[in-house]
Write a structure and sequence with these properties.
By secondary structure, this protein is of the alpha/beta class. It contains 17 helices and 20 strands. The longest helix has 16 residues. It holds the Pfam family Mur_ligase_C.
Length: 444
């Protein structure tokens, strides 16, 4: 009996443990932190052995294969030891995919991947396909492979999940864009992070498809210097293609294998240039899957968007409050500021992953009237923008941030929470941060 050790007792870890047990592995789950009660109960129900708040090496180093949760870095001493002992360390996606015959659509990118994943899932589900949603969002892919029977999966894949694949290949891959993010995990080398993202296409064959942003410099440079066997489907706001997706005369136009789909951009529910790209990527998948054009049109016009991503919360005294807590890097905040059409009070800050704020400078000059720093260490933000805006305030909790923003905003302005940073200094995660913002706004 092969031994599967799972490092991390969260959603992906527990899902992998259940699938491993079902497939006849001897399974052991080990978590350095505390395993949540709901996951402990599941592990006990399946009679899976587990430990938390420690890693017992003799119970781990005897593994045939180890699945590590995406949050554990490759540099962790235990992971290094496993690799030195020649033990395969893989991600949940790599472990689960041999146990399903379903086709997968894998979606990665520094920004836009959640919206693109949700929209792709919405299009395929509305189109009548038997489709599951997983990866970085929703229920763990492995758990669904163990308990569900889908024909297709739409998977949001982080670079950390892609780092742990060996043979996995999506039938359709989407790369939404690349901008410097998580560089702390890639030795602060941008090229390492770029290479990690492109792992999504490394095992693809001539029968597979690779959908990508042709306007993105990092992606274009990689494709000039490297090869993928997959059939290429570019999308762009700036150029047109004989085979690909583009915007022309306020119309989204998608031509794949001589099949054309057109829709007025004004009829698409998502707003902003970056969302047109997300819509082109998702619609390209729907076209490859032969979803009816009328269904695609209806789905694009009724899609609700993603929570914590440019989410309009309330309008109070003619000031629009917007929750973009999911913007955990500079590039995401760039899109948010770019989409603002009125003077903006910007709430920013948190745990900085090596941010360079200079690219935001023209947008801040043009659109931002005041900055509220919400973090334990705001020095970089203050150094970057103190000469650019009239008003800068430091706070250390969400209630103060929102109350301050109310005083700084005038009729017709907007208040935008778009932190450009991770949330772990003051919040559990970006959802907690966004929910606290929404609660504080509702209490104004």
């Amino acid at each position: 009996m092969k031994r599967l050790v799972v490092l991390g007792g969260g959603e992906s870890g527990v899902g992998t443990a259940i699938l491993g047990k079902k497939e006849g592995y001897d399974v052991f789950v080990s978590d350095m932190g505390k395993i949540k009660d709901k996951y402990r109960d599941v592990l006990n129900q399946y009679e899976i052995k587990w430990e938390d708040e420690k890693h017992t090496e003799e119970l781990i180093l005897n593994a045939d294969v180890v699945m590590k949760s995406p949050g554990i870095p490759d540099k962790a001493p235990l992971v290094k030891k496993l690799l030195e002992n020649g033990i395969s360390v893989i991600s949940e996606i790599e472990f689960a995919y041999p146990f399903t015959n379903a086709k997968t659509i894998g979606i990665t990118g520094s920004n836009g991947k959640t919206t693109t994943t949700m929209l792709t899932y919405h299009l395929l589900k509305e189109g009548g396909l038997n489709v599951g949603l997983g990866g970085n969002i929703g229920k763990s892919f492995a758990w669904q492979v163990a308990e569900e029977n889908y024909d297709y999966y739409v998977l949001e894949l982080s670079s950390f999940q892609l780092d742990g694949i060996i043979n996995y290949k999506p039938d359709i891959a989407i790369l939404t864009n690349i901008s410097p993010d998580h560089l702390d995990r890639y030795e602060y080398k941008y090229e390492n992070y770029i290479a990690s993202k492109f792992r999504i296409t490394m095992n693809q064959t001539e029968d597979d498809f690779f959908i990508y942003d042709a306007d993105d410099e990092a992606i274009s440079a990689w494709l000039q210097n490297n090869k993928t066997k997959a059939q290429l489907i570019p999308f762009s706001l700036l150029q047109t293609f004989e085979n690909g997706a583009f915007i022309k005369n306020n119309t989204m136009d998608i031509i794949i294998n001589n099949e054309e789909f057109e829709m007025k951009t004004a009829d698409i529910s998502l707003e902003g240039k970056h969302n047109m790209k997300n819509a082109m990527a998702a619609t390209s998948v729907a076209q490859l899957m032969k979803i009816r054009k009328q269904t695609i049109r209806e789905s694009l016009s009724n899609f609700q968007g993603v929570e914590h991503r440019l989410e309009k919360v309330l309008k109070i005294q003619n000031v629009q409050y917007i929750n973009d807590s999911k913007a955990t890097n500079v590039n995401a905040t760039f899109f948010a500021l770019d989409s603002m059409t009125v003077p903006t009070v910007w709430i920013v800050g948190g745990v900085d992953k090596g941010n360079d704020y200079s690219e935001l400078m023209p947008l801040v000059r043009e659109k931002v009237k005041a900055i509220i720093c919400l973090g334990l260490d705001n020095k970089k933000i203050i150094d970057a923008f103190s000469d650019v805006v009239d008003m800068m305030v430091e706070v250390d909790n969400m209630r103060d941030a929102v109350n301050t923003s109310k005083h700084l905003a005038e009729k017709g302005d907007a208040v935008l929470l778009s932190p450009a940073c991770a949330s772990f200094d003051l919040f559990q995660n970006y959802e907690d941060r966004g929910n606290q913002f929404k609660a504080a706004v509702k209490n104004l």
